[in-house]
Specification:
Layout (H helix, E strand, L loop, with lengths): L1 H18 L17 E8 L6 H15 L2 E8 L4 H10 L6 E4 L4 H6 L7 H5 L3 H6 L2 H7 L8 E2 L8 E6 H6 L14 H10 L4 E3 L14 E3 L7 E4 L8 E2 L4 H16 L20 E7 L4 H9 L3 E5 L4 E2 L1 H4 L3 E4 L6 H13 L1 H9 L6 E3 L5 E3 L27 H10 L2 E2 L13 H19 L5 H15 L1 H21 L2
Parallel strand pairs: 1-2, 1-3, 6-10, 12-16
Antiparallel strand pairs: 3-13, 4-13, 5-10, 5-11, 7-8, 8-9, 14-15
Helix pairs in contact: 2-14, 13-14, 16-17
């Protein structure tokens, strides 16, 4: 534990130093007339040993095919949230950036992302058509598009991610465990017999722990207003008033008190990871045949079990997007790059796997066999999965399975609805602050809900949550009525 706290302290110090660096202006220096345009691209992932090598290979292709280059930055998992905020808030130099559910809508609303709608409707229709239409419904903000969603599984149901080593050691049938309450005997055994393992890992991210109860957020996940995904009337509830939430939080607190949940859970960021930290069960979201991709993402063998329904929601469509700086000097080249990542297999596979012959080879079945760990892409952060080659260990018909999965997902009755907070912005801001204050301690089991839920509810009411709930319900009712009448 001391080692983990030391890592966290050092990370905080480094972030602080980084944030104090003098900001650069968002406008790039004027290029010489004969120099190609160079885009600055930031995404998440550890800065690989061979990132520069991959960047060089990428630029050779981009320059030959499209006439511009890209400076490709990856920011580590533990640092990305803070550096994203710094890039946005200090006008640092970037053209394209990875964004996701936690910050896409708020950053777009604040005017920091370029409106891509006209580009997609006119010059870049091939890009638009390459992405499943359900994604466009989910990422639209007032019928405008501010980011290109990763074209992957439509629904991202919650999964329990089990360490394969312990599943095999104890011959666990993971299909028997679909709720937090059902995990108790497993967590008890691992806590007693595997002291090196964290039985159940949590962090402060807004992974929807209410999804197994079929609850989804109404728009932003920064306020606790949700609907039942199977309720076609879309009745808005304060999730903390439901029996499901009360029972879930009580269960998690009992686990925390028993030592089953990592004690620093409420302090960990959404992407924080430490290599010397074996975990028995994590929580994540994903699609079909997910074990292989989770194994690649976390770096150890994982078997996954889906524990919520496959429903395409606004939240699931916004899990990974590439957005353009509203102040970029090169919107056309940005759109060309975004189009290439979604329609050009050569570009897409290079970003995902690296350089053929250096980082991977191809088998007789045309699957990727990785031969180096010096570069690894992060698939959900960029582009169209359906033009990727499959990897050894994945099913040859992986993309057919994904297509079938997408075709059989249920559509949330709220997909495509965009809330309008213009008449209650003060209440939205106040409720968001209260929610953020209490969310991580409650959702990670760190504090006793019997004590802190009443405090949360009182502060939410004072902040105006009831007005927000009523306002959103009226908007949803009008939106549903317009849909039913074709308006």
């Amino acid at each position: 534990m001391a080692k983990k706290w030391l890592c966290l302290c050092l990370a905080g110090l480094l972030l602080g130093l980084w944030g104090c660096a003098p900001p650069r202006q968002s406008a790039q220096p004027t290029a010489e007339a004969d120099a190609p345009v160079n885009l600055v691209y930031y995404t998440i992932g550890e800065p690989d040993e061979d990132l520069a090598l991959v960047n060089e290979a990428l630029n050779r292709i981009l320059l030959e095919k499209y006439g511009f280059t890209v400076t490709y930055h990856k920011i580590g998992w533990n640092d990305y949230t803070a550096q994203f905020n710094s890039l946005i808030n200090t006008n640092r130099n970037y053209d394209i950036i990875f964004t996701w559910t936690d910050n896409y809508m708020t950053t777009a609303d604040s005017g920091n992302f370029l409106d891509l709608t006209e580009y997609l409707q006119t010059q870049y229709t091939a890009l638009y058509e390459a992405v499943n239409s359900e994604f466009w419904k989910g990422v639209a903000i007032g019928e405008r598009i501010y980011g290109i969603p990763t074209n992957k599984e439509l629904a991202t149901p919650v999964h329990f991610l089990f360490a394969q080593e312990l599943v095999e050691k104890y011959q666990i049938d993971i299909d028997q465990y679909k709720t937090f309450a059902s995990l108790e005997p497993l967590l008890e055994r691992v806590y007693a017999q595997e002291p090196d393992y964290i039985p159940l890992f949590f962090d402060s991210s807004h992974t929807n722990i209410m999804a197994p109860g079929n609850y989804e957020y109404v728009g932003y996940d920064s306020i606790p207003l949700m609907i039942d995904s199977h309720d076609k009337t879309c009745q808005v509830v304060n999730i903390f008033e439901t029996d499901y939430a009360k029972e879930t939080l009580a269960t998690l607190h009992r686990y925390y008190e028993a030592g089953y949940i990592n004690q620093d859970a409420a302090l960990r960021t959404a992407f924080s990871r430490f290599q010397d930290e074996p975990v028995f069960i994590r929580l994540s979201t994903g699609g079909p045949d997910a074990s292989a991709s989770y194994t690649a993402d976390y770096g150890y063998p994982i078997v996954s079990g889906q524990v919520s329904d496959s429903i395409v929601t606004t939240e699931s469509t916004q899990g990974g997007l590439m957005a353009v700086n509203a102040h970029t000097r090169y919107p056309e080249q940005c759109m060309q790059f975004l189009s290439a990542v979604n329609t050009d297999p050569e570009i897409r596979n290079l970003l995902n796997y690296g350089v053929e012959g250096v980082h991977y080879t191809l088998t007789e079945e045309d699957q990727v066999q990785m031969i180096s760990t010096a570069y690894r892409g992060v698939p959900y952060t960029q582009g169209n999965w359906f033009i990727l080659k499959t990897s050894v260990g994945e099913k040859l018909n992986k993309w057919e399975l994904y297509q079938e999965f997408n075709e059989n997902t249920l559509e949330s009755p709220l997909l495509g609805f965009t809330p309008d907070y213009s008449g209650c912005q003060l209440e939205f801001n106040a409720v968001s602050l209260v929610y953020e204050k209490y969310y991580a301690p409650l959702a990670t089991g760190t504090v006793d809900p019997a004590i802190y839920l009443p405090k949360l509810q009182e502060e939410l009411k004072l902040a105006g949550v009831e007005k927000l709930q009523l306002t959103l319900q009226h908007q949803i009712n009008d939106w549903l009525a317009a849909k039913h009448t074709g308006g």
